[in-house]
Design goal:
heterodimer; A: alpha+beta; five-stranded antiparallel beta sheet; 20 helices; rod-shaped; B: alpha/beta; eight-stranded mixed beta sheet; 12 helices; 8 strands; 41% helix; globular
Chain lengths: 718, 276
């Protein structure tokens, strides 16, 4: 081979090598581009937000294409605002900084890609952070419009700006394109997320509101339920067939059904007084909005009934027509009403009885008076004497009867005098017998030694009467009542009675009333002395019997005890302090009667018979007498009389002016005169303690001769 | 898991440099190269610390040291910073052990401050014109392009690492995590690329003659299966450095610390101890 041909070959080989190298480079370049796009595609598909998307994209492009810096900017009026950027030689992030762009370039940018080289680069002023100290050799800008209507652009900066960079433009555009399309999607996703969040927030708010409303409603419902459940009245919710839909606890308790059972029943099952017609009427009235108030009779599960007052009305509801009914058990109220009626009846009876007794008293006074006067005139052994004695005895009995009447009407006032308890008992024995009936045996076990208590015979009669009546009521099928008196030394446990002073002997008279009835259970025993406490059916007792006994016992400075065994019987014991002194008997003879000394007595009495009789009596007793029919006349008579009037004996109940008023007018001019009041019933005389006021002298009608004589003497000498 | 010791730091020329230190005795400074940081010494650290005062440093821009981009990451500059580092720590004399570019730094340092060194150990080290390159066109160089890609793509990085290790089964996910750790952030990636761009064999070429005059014991270790740095480099080094020893370790790649850590330690101990 020649040298020339060697060189030729060499040259050819070198040329081939050069071309191959070039092709290799180009292939490598192509390879790189593909790689770059592939890498970018891979990375950006992983980016979850626009910032990391752009950051990653810019970094990859810059590194793989060896760019000095690049940025993603927003097109503003006449400049660019850097959104994200990458600079291989600096960590700084000039986000939000402005790129100054010349108007010409800016206009060009709006229309398409812009490639600037050499000095043209100065038309774009990059912030120092992005360029460092580098002078850009070439700048490539790619604009985009993104869905929100805003315009963005990428800017790629190379510090040399040679052909290599210029050849990159297509690749850069494609890379930027990929980034932008992902950007769009991410923005969309972000918007969706935002909307979702907003929706979430709204739903949460709504839910919170609902939960709060629910809670409020639940609380409200809770409160309502508590109210309903704790109500003392039975509450029912009914449907429009009056079937029970809901009840409260009281409803269950009062009727003896469980809630479950009640929910199967209707009003017609529970109330005896409401039939279909009544029910229909109720429904129609309530539906109009009217509250119905009716009385009903509820039947318990066990068949027993009780009266109720029902208030019912429409229950507003979105779910149909319902009614709400409150039922109040009024059996207690009825009992009280009956007791009130009873008490009123008693009072009426009492007034009647008192009225009758008053008239009787006056008549009896006449009968007694004249009988006594007649007896005074007749010597012993006179044939008429026996007859008159009979009249007098009849009168005495009548007197006793009127006393009983007054006792029942409770118009007795307490007068504290020595009373023989045994005589009190024997005096009413017959009456007791009449009241008690035949199937109950009454045994009197009287202490032979007489004992006196200080007190009011009438009241003590009441005590015995009430205890015996109680005992009888405890034995509806018959039995035995024992009435016993004893005189015993006072037990140490009794309190002394200072009011009686030195009169108390240290003994007590014990009145015992026992029966063989059913007895009283311990839990009731402690309540029996309470007023209105009664175990009897309504109408059969006011519950005042034992309370009265208790009260009277206390008024007499006594003590009462009760002992009972269920199934065996009950025993009441009344302890009353024994006193010295004796009880006065009504049957003292006329010889014992104290006589007058011609004292002047002014008698005022509106009843003619009594007036005549008393006049005769008083004169008989040896007094001087002035008479008047009423208060007015009495004052006139008193004024006209020259001499002294020693005593004014006046009836209390008189027309025009009663005894009290008369005395008021009389006293000023006759301050030294004594006064005795007379009356058939004495509650007008009652002072604060149910006892006669101090200094008031009193004669109870019917007035017996003896009473009159004694009283006159007593008062005139007192 | 990197080095099993607490990290410490100090200021060197206004930047923070992080290091790991343990043990007592003569100081041994372990210097890594490109693509690694202090972690690469973890399999040797404890053993070395048993007999020496061992320091494994993170070069600026690597590991968790500061990563300024306005300073040079060239071999010469790193070597200068290491000098200041040693001075800040108050160390008078030490054993320099460098891997890869760290070896290049060791050479520069040995020429400049031979009085500070007991000896120099070069493990799969760069030298001379280990690649022909100019800074600005660095991107076009295959190895650099590979590094660029590696910074962006763990797959590429894994390839680089796998190629550099003989016992490929040791390339676990945990190991890749360690390699990739500085590249997780944009900052770390920028620093890594800056290091790559600063590759310039000029620093090493200019000390070629000085190496011939070096009066320091030098240990040259080569993993026989290193694909990145040819055998020629270690042979030439051995030939030109007077007091040098060449050790070839079979079945080891560029990252001998992963392939044969015990052998490395043994060679180092033997080398350090020889001067008694």
């Amino acid at each position: 081979m020649t040298e020339g041909s060697d060189c030729q070959q060499c040259r050819e080989l070198k040329e081939k090598l050069r071309i191959l190298s070039l092709e290799n480079d180009q292939m490598a370049e192509r390879g790189e581009e593909t790689l770059l796009l592939g890498l970018i595609a891979e990375k950006i598909s992983q980016a979850s937000d626009v910032n990391s998307l752009v950051d990653t994209g810019l970094e990859q492009i810059a590194i793989l294409k060896d760019l000095a810096c690049c940025a993603f900017c927003l097109m503003e009026d006449d400049s660019g605002r850097i959104i994200r950027s990458y600079n291989s030689m600096s960590h700084a992030a000039p986000d939000n900084k402005l790129l100054q762009i010349s108007p010409a370039v800016f206009t060009e940018l709006k229309n398409g890609n812009v490639m600037l080289t050499g000095e043209d680069c100065q038309q774009v002023q990059l912030p120092h952070e992005i360029t460092a100290d580098m002078q850009p050799g070439a700048i490539f800008m790619v604009p985009f419009a993104i869905r929100q209507g805003k315009s963005y652009f990428f800017i790629f900066v190379d510090n040399i700006g040679d052909v290599r960079f210029q050849q990159m433009r297509h690749l850069l555009h494609r890379a930027a394109d990929m980034i932008v399309s992902r950007y769009d999607i991410l923005l969309l996703l972000a918007e969706l997320r935002e909307l979702n969040l907003d929706l979430d927030r709204k739903v949460n708010e709504r839910t919170r509101d609902l939960v709060a409303a629910n809670k409020f409603l639940r609380n409200s419902e809770q409160r309502f339920r508590t109210l309903v459940e704790s109500a003392a009245d039975a509450i029912f919710v009914l449907n429009d067939n009056l079937k029970v839909m809901d009840v409260n606890e009281q409803a269950c308790n009062s009727l003896g059904y469980t809630k479950k059972e009640l929910l199967t029943l209707s009003v017609y099952d529970l109330d005896d007084s409401i039939d279909l017609a009544a029910g229909r009427h109720l429904i129609s009235e309530m539906a109009k909005g009217n509250i119905q108030i009716v009385n009903g009779i509820h039947r318990r599960k066990d068949g027993s009934t009780f009266p109720v007052e029902i208030r019912a009305g429409l229950l507003k509801s979105n779910e149909g027509q319902y009614f709400i009914a409150l039922a109040r058990d009024i059996s207690q109220r009825q009992i009280l009403e009956e007791q009130l009626v009873q008490a009123q009846k008693m009072e009426a009876v009492g007034r009647l009885a008192g009225g009758i007794a008053h008239d009787f008293n006056n008549i009896l006074t006449t009968i007694m008076g004249y009988s006594e006067m007649a007896l005074l005139e007749l010597a012993d052994g006179h044939p008429l004497r026996e007859d008159i004695e009979m009249i007098k005895e009849a009168g005495s009995k009548a007197t006793l009867l009127t006393r009983q009447l007054l006792l029942f009407s409770r118009k007795q006032v307490i007068t504290m005098e020595p009373v023989n308890l045994n005589e009190v008992i024997t005096g009413i024995a017959k009456m007791l017998g009449r009241m008690i009936g035949e199937d109950v045996e009454v045994v009197l076990d009287i202490e032979p030694r007489p004992g006196n208590v200080k007190g009011d015979a009438g009241k003590l009669e009441q005590v015995v009467m009430n205890l015996v009546i109680n005992a009888r009521d405890a034995m509806p099928d018959g039995g035995k009542i024992t009435v016993m008196t004893r005189c015993l030394p006072s037990p140490a446990r009794f309190v002394d009675v200072p009011e009686l002073g030195h009169e108390h002997t240290g003994n007590h008279l014990v009145l015992t009333v026992s029966d063989t009835g059913g007895g009283i259970p311990p839990e009731i025993l402690k309540n029996i002395f309470e007023p209105f406490f009664t175990t009897k059916d309504s109408g059969k007792g006011t519950g005042l019997g034992l309370a009265t006994v208790y009260g009277i016992t206390k008024q007499h400075f006594g003590h009462i005890e009760v002992e009972s065994t269920v199934g065996a019987g009950t025993t009441f014991r009344v302890y009353l302090p024994e006193i010295h002194g004796t009880a006065e008997k009504d049957t003292s003879g006329p010889e014992a009667m104290p006589r007058g000394n011609h004292e002047m007595i002014l008698l005022v009495e509106d009843d003619e018979m009594i007036r005549q009789m008393l006049s005769a009596l008083i004169k008989k007793l040896g007094y001087e007498l002035l008479i008047a029919e009423d208060g007015m006349e009495a004052l006139a008579v008193a004024n006209n009389h020259d001499g002294h009037i020693d005593l004014l004996l006046t009836d209390v109940i008189m027309p025009k002016m009663n005894g009290g008023e008369l005395v008021e007018k009389f006293k000023p001019t006759h301050s030294h005169s004594k006064v005795i009041y007379m009356s058939g019933y004495t509650d007008d005389m009652i002072g604060k303690h149910g006892v006669l006021e101090e200094g008031m002298n009193f004669l109870q009608k019917p007035v017996s001769f003896n009473d009159l004589a004694v009283k006159l003497r007593e008062v005139l000498e007192g | 898991m990197g080095i099993d010791a607490a990290s410490q730091s100090c200021q060197v020329a206004g930047h923070k440099m992080v290091y790991y230190r343990a043990g007592h005795g003569e100081t041994v400074l372990l210097v890594h190269g490109i693509t690694t940081y202090s972690f690469i010494w973890r399999n040797l650290f404890a053993e070395l610390a048993a007999k020496y005062d061992v320091i494994a440093v993170d070069l600026l821009g690597c590991g968790i040291s500061d990563m300024p981009l306005d300073v040079s990451y060239a071999v010469k500059d790193h070597a200068e910073r290491l000098g200041e580092f040693i001075s800040v720590l108050g160390i008078d004399k030490f054993h320099f052990v460098g891997h890869d570019l760290g070896g290049g730094m060791g050479q520069v340092f040995a020429i400049k401050h031979p009085e500070l060194l007991f000896d120099l150990s070069l493990i799969n080290s760069v030298a001379y014109d280990f690649w022909p390159v100019q800074p600005i066109m660095a991107m076009r160089t295959p190895i650099v392009r590979q590094l660029l890609m590696a910074s962006l793509d763990v797959g590429t990085f894994r390839l680089i690492v796998k190629r550099g290790i003989y016992h490929k089964e040791n390339v676990t996910d945990e190991l890749m995590d360690l390699f990739m750790q500085p590249l997780q952030t944009s900052t770390g990636r920028k620093a890594f690329l800056h290091f790559a761009r600063c590759l310039d064999n000029q620093n090493l070429l200019e000390i070629a003659d000085d190496l011939k005059q070096l009066r320091l014991p030098v240990l040259i270790i080569r993993g026989n299966d290193d694909p990145y740095l040819s055998e020629a480099i270690s042979i030439k080094l051995h030939a030109e450095i007077p007091d040098s020893r060449l050790v070839k370790i079979l079945h080891s790649g560029h990252f001998i610390q992963e392939d044969a850590p015990e052998r490395l330690v043994a060679e180092l101990f033997s080398f350090f101890g020889d001067k008694r």
